[in-house]
Design a protein that fits this description.
Largest sheet: 8 strands, mixed
CATH architecture: 3-Layer(aba) Sandwich
Number of helices: 11
CATH superfamily: Alpha/Beta hydrolase fold, catalytic domain
Shape: globular
Order of helices and strands: EEEHEHEHEHHHHHEHEHH
Strand order of the largest sheet: 1-2-4-3-5-6-7-8
Length: 273
């Protein structure tokens, strides 16, 4: 199933999103840094057989508009996503978030519980486990190796997979091309400047109050955000399900697409009950 890609108005900005399926519950998929909505192309087609799946390029990423640093924080990204859903006439959704998207999912679930039916966090930012050193280094690079560039994107991708063969040429191009475009390096640096751990740390006292279905998926070999954080998040959210994905790194949907797609389907089945 091929994804339909469009730019849609979201408040003052236009966000690019890919869509699979047209009927059933709506699943919103949110990526992290330094990727974009193409991250989900391995699992979204399967979900699109029974759901309407919308994978979004966050503001400042991929083919979405640029924005000032203050509009690239996780809380503001959540607002942009809600504005996009309003434009599409969509009320309630299931949220699936990876990396930064996991933090955005937590914000939406806690602050907009009327819009979020369930949440899946996959190798997500939480507590104070972020931003990563590579992201911090991009803010004021002291050497060329720290500069926002296609090279640092490639490095983060290589560190983030367990199976090197997961990084196909097409995949690498999907994530490096936006940085190679005019202004792309500045967009990536601005994205890095917007990220502070207090954006999720402030949520911690409220996590036990979540009363929606929550699934936490984590790569067994995640070297960027070790699985400890997934277990800790599970302990903070009553009734949440935690699954360790074997032979997978940070990008579990690239290393184990079939297994992750099945886990997402299982989550939606539990949420439906």
């Amino acid at each position: 199933m091929q994804a339909k890609g469009t730019r849609t108005q979201a408040g003052p900005y236009q966000l690019f999103c890919r869509q699979w399926g047209t009927a059933g519950p709506v699943v919103v998929m949110i990526h992290g840094i330094p990727t974009n909505s193409y991250l989900w192309h391995t699992v979204a087609p399967t979900l699109g057989e029974t759901c309407r799946v919308i994978a979004i390029d966050l503001l400042g990423y991929g083919q979405s508009d640029s924005g000032p640093v203050e509009d690239l924080t996780l809380p503001r990204q959540g607002e942009h996503i809600l504005a996009l859903l309003d434009t599409l006439g969509i009320g309630q959704v299931h949220v699936v978030g990876h990396d930064l998207g996991g933090g955005i999912g937590q914000i939406l679930a806690l602050q907009h519980s009327d819009r979020v039916l369930s949440m899946v966090v996959t190798d997500g930012v939480c507590f104070s486990n972020w931003p990563l050193p590579q992201v911090v280094g991009m803010r004021r690079p002291a050497a060329p190796a720290f500069e926002a560039s296609p090279l640092i994107v490639q490095e983060m991708l290589r560190m983030g997979v367990f199976k090197p063969e997961s990084l196909t040429a097409e995949l690498m191009a999907a994530f490096t091309q936006p940085v190679e475009m005019p202004g792309g390096a500045e967009r990536l640096r601005n994205a890095a400047l917007a990220l502070e751990h207090h954006q999720t740390e402030a949520l911690v006292p409220h996590l036990p109050s979540l009363q929606l279905p929550v699934t936490i998926l984590w790569g067994q070999h995640d070297r960027l955000l070790p699985a400890y954080w997934g277990w800790r998040l599970r302990d903070e959210i009553p009734g949440s399900h935690f699954t360790l994905i074997p032979n997978a790194g940070h990008f579990i949907m690239l290393d184990q697409p079939m297994l992750v797609a099945q886990e997402l389907a299982n989550h939606l089945q539990r949420a439906g009950r």
